[in-house]
Specification:
This protein is an alpha/beta fold. It is 29% helix and 26% strand. Helix 1 runs antiparallel to helix 3 (101-121). The longest helix has 21 residues, at 101-121.
Length: 132
Amino acid sequence: MKLRNCGIFPAILIGLATGAAFGNPSLAPTISSPDDADKTIVIHDTTNHVTVFANETVLFKLGDQQFAIKFDGVSRAYDLAKLAPAGVLNHKIRVYIAPRACYELNMSTVLLSMIKTNARRCIPTRVSAKRS
């Protein structure tokens, strides 16, 4: 049985596609300018979690204090107290990152389609020997 050469083409495509789709995410969210915020979330003493979208810049307001964070990291959940400036939060708040359906889910469909197509090409085939 002979295998067709599949190469690393699918891995390269997946790497390029995910980099383009996710904007080459850093390892963690970053502090941003409040002027760049896509939305504002007001934090109360009873707030224990919030949900934001991937690659979204959020302005958090706590009384008279505020800070903005761009959520471009690779994780799907963060502790806001670790991201906020020191001394701003007095309790733990979990931030959950929801995918942006307009590009992440569509990109997943494209990637799965590419993988399935290439997998069909890599199926082992029998090579029959010609006898003369």
